[in-house]
Amino acid sequence: MKAISSMATRHLLGDLFAAAGDAGLPHVELTAVGGVDAAERVAAGAPFDLVILADDALRRLAADGHIVAGTVAPLVLSQVAVAVPSESVASAGRPEGAAFADADELRAALRAVDRIGYSTGPSGTALVRMITAWGLAEELGPRLVQARPGVPVATLLAHGEAEIGFQQLSELVGQPGVRILGVLPDDAAIDTVFAGAVTTTSTDPPGARALLAFLSSAEAAALASTHSFTPV
């Protein structure tokens, strides 16, 4: 059984598929790449049985006929968090609360730094869109540093390429050289629902459906919480 996902869920899926194997379900070979790349591979007909991506990306694939009808299943919610460079060995676990009190404080923080790290995929797109909506694209645009596909924002921070960074919390937790300040405030929150679906190229649709059902189980929800995701 083959599955493809974005980088954001790769650690969680590694544990989930291992647990599924222990439960007697088919072994899964997971390919984790940038979300845009993953969607393009599925759209091109690459032979995968399952795809796990941001919900909106999956629904576009479904609309274009690359997903088995009715199989899109929301799995977890991921929040975007804020981090800064740190001398610590690794970041701590999930922080309590938001990094800033509100969007005004967040904007002030962005205007006070020269290099702002952000990721590829839906969370990075949403951050740029928000900066544009604030009317700060001209001022902050030259300061934006986008991580290369497959490279965590934490790497930019740890290597001194960015002074502040934004990425899904699950991607920042446990990374060396960064300190997580918290998630974005409510009035500037960037939340992504990741979902799974069976692809039309699957060679074992019933097996893929069984795995997808496991990803929605109570056992999967407990594992998701340990990876700083919120089950949905």
TrEMBL record:
It comes from the Bacteria. InterPro entries: ModA/WtpA. Gene3D superfamilies: Periplasmic binding protein-like II (3.40.190.10). Pfam families: SBP_bac_11. This is Substrate-binding domain-containing protein. It comes from Microbacterium capsulatum. The lineage of its organism: Bacteria, Bacillati, Actinomycetota, Actinomycetes, Micrococcales.
